[in-house]
Design a protein that fits this description.
The protein has a single domain, classed as Alpha-Beta Plaits. 29% of the residues lie in helices and 19% in strands. It is built from three helices and four strands, in the order βαβαβαβ. The chain starts with 27 loop residues before the first strand and ends with a strand. With 102 residues, it is of the alpha+beta class.
Length: 102
């Protein structure tokens, strides 16, 4: 809109071009391994509900066969969190899930 220099709602000065976004660098570290992707999903949800971002790496079966269960031999889910959240994540997980901590 020509001639508009401020936001009509909040009064903030408008700019011609937004600044370029800088990528955020996060170092993900493993906190533990669970016995299945189902348990991994539960752990991820627990962490995220407590303000801890989480990433799961699961076994071949979960990805290739899109299976969900708790007793498939060789099934696992590795849980990763940002490095600065490692201690907090381990303390939370060890109290709620059966996890092999790293």
């Amino acid at each position: 809109m020509k001639g508009v220099k401020k936001c009509p709602d909040c009064g903030t000065e408008l700019v011609d071009k937004l600044p370029e976004e800088q990528p955020v660098s996060i170092k993900w570290v493993p906190v533990g391994t669970l016995q299945s992707s189902l348990y991994g999903d539960m752990a991820k949800e627990l962490l995220e509900k407590n303000g801890i971002p989480a990433l799961l790496i699961t076994d071949f079966f979960h990805g290739a066969l899109t299976t969900t269960g708790t007793s498939m031999p060789g099934s696992y889910a590795k849980v990763f969190v940002p490095e600065e959240k490692t201690f907090q994540a381990r303390e939370l997980l060890k109290n709620y899930v059966d996890i092999d901590l790293e």
